[in-house]
Structures are given as C-alpha cells and as structure tokens.
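User: My instructor asked us to take a sequence, write out its structure as tokens, and then describe one feature of it. I'm not sure where to start. Here is the sequence I was given:
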Amino acid sequence: MQGAENNGLHLDKCAVIGDRWTDMIAAEQAGCMKILVKTGAGAKVFNKYQNKEYDDKWAEIVPDYIAETLEDAVNWLLKDDRE
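Assistant: Let's start with the prediction itself. The structure tokens for your sequence are:
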C-alpha cells in the first residue's frame, strides 16, 4: 500500500487483470477491481471457480468481471456503463 500512497494511486479505481486466483486474492486485499481473464491458466481457474473447488478462504472472492481475453477485459474497463 505504501507504493500506492507514494504514487498517488487510488486503489479503488485500479484493476487487476489476472489468470490465477492468487491475482484475484491480491486485488481483493488491495481493494482493486478484479478481472479474471480466461486465457493462459485462466480457463482452468475459471472451471475451478464455477465448480466451487476452492477452499473456504478463497470462496468469498468474486471477480468483478470474467473476460474471455485481455482485449475483452480492457474493453470492459473502458465502458462507461460497466455491468
């Protein structure tokens, strides 16, 4: 959090785009938007998420958006009326 403070970042306005559940955990802990992308390791992670195969400490974390690709994630972020 010190890095965000030193650089004037508002973490609640930042997003983490990742393909692993640890990325979602980091985003949650930092207070950022969480975008799970289904490329790379993301497809396997998404299947585990859908099937509720995570242990209790991860079960509470819900991505703000699940993107098919990095481009999809960026386009979602750029939309004015995010769902």
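For the description part of your assignment, you could build on this observation: The longest strand covers residues 33-37. Try explaining in your own words what that tells you about the chain.
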